[in-house]
Specification:
Blueprint: H1 2-20, E1 43-52, H2 55-88, H3 94-114, E2 118-127, E3 134-145, H4 146-158, H5 161-165, H6 169-186
Antiparallel strand pairs: 1-3, 2-3
Helix pairs in contact: 2-3, 2-6, 3-4
Amino acid sequence: MGRLYLKLFLLLVLTTLYSCKTTKNLEISAPFSEKKYKSNKNFFRVTSSGSSKDLETAKKKAIMNAKSELAGNIRSTVKAVTDQYTNSTTVENNEQFENKFEELARTVVKEILSDLDVKEEKLFRESDKKTGKDNYSVWVVMEMSRQSVFDDMNNKISKDQKLQLDYDKMKYEKIFNSEMEKLAEENN
């Protein structure tokens, strides 16, 4: 009988200890998560980070990640615009026209990214208490104006005689602006 009471007592103590255990939920907010750092109808924007034991390497990683993401965003927008444009326009050879547009978009994005600068940057140093070594995290914001992308695309198209024959700048710009509006709505 004594053993039964001892087991019940231990069970009661363990249950009490387990129920008293508290967990803390810590909300973490990433840098540059406010609305002003999101893409809108006038700007493609990205926020990205990089981490390393070396500060310069962390910066390079953050910038490379941001450029890669920005390039993807611009390419997908231009692709959507091109698809809509060719579907709403009578073009002699749609597939060839689309391929040429996509090739131009890749060229424009590559040129744009080479001249792109970091708009804002935040640096964080985390110290490992066990090893005593530091690790750096760098967050960056990069942006490209909608108008710059459109102007660069328009200039490339104007220099291509085959594309120029089937190109309606006003129609293309209208579709481009519509896609930028959609992008802005997604980020609201």
